[in-house]
Amino acid sequence: MDAVFWIVLGVVLAVAEIFTTTLFLIMFGAGAFAAAGAAALGAPVALQALVFAVVSALSLFLVRPVIKRHAMPALESGDQPFGVEAIEGSTAVVLETVDAERGFIKIDGELWTARSYDATRSYPPGERVQVIKVRGATALVWQDEISTPGALPEGER
Description:
- With 157 residues, the chain is of the alpha+beta class.
- Helix content is 45%, strand content 20%.
- It has helices spanning 2-20, 25-40, 45-71, 73-77, 84-87; strands spanning 91-96, 104-107, 110-116, 128-135, 138-143.
- Strands 1-2-3-5-4 form a five-stranded mixed beta barrel.
- The longest helix is centred in the middle third of the chain and has 27 residues, at 45-71.
- Residues 147-152 have low confidence and may be disordered.
């Protein structure tokens, strides 16, 4: 019965880690799984708790910094665009005519609703456009030849 408790605790902590992504709770999950191993071998509850505490602490102070340093350097340093920033500046293909009101584009295999960045322009299906901004779940697009800041409409730089 003790092993089941530790396994359930480990799973709960691992699932909670998915939502926090801090690599904090998963270290305690590792401690819980180690304690489950001790329980399965017949260790008394006090020893199970000690195994949980020691493995959790060692994981937290020795393993977590190494994982963070090697697995997440770009996110921590800000060098790698994340979320909406990763989409802005991307090239997309128009799937359904994009104008000031509506349209659909494909960015790296994902479908997005889109509107023209310049309300006077429209883009037919098959045309390549560049994502200038993202507002909510809608990409604002402009012609793909945006290699220089002067390509944007006046006042939009």
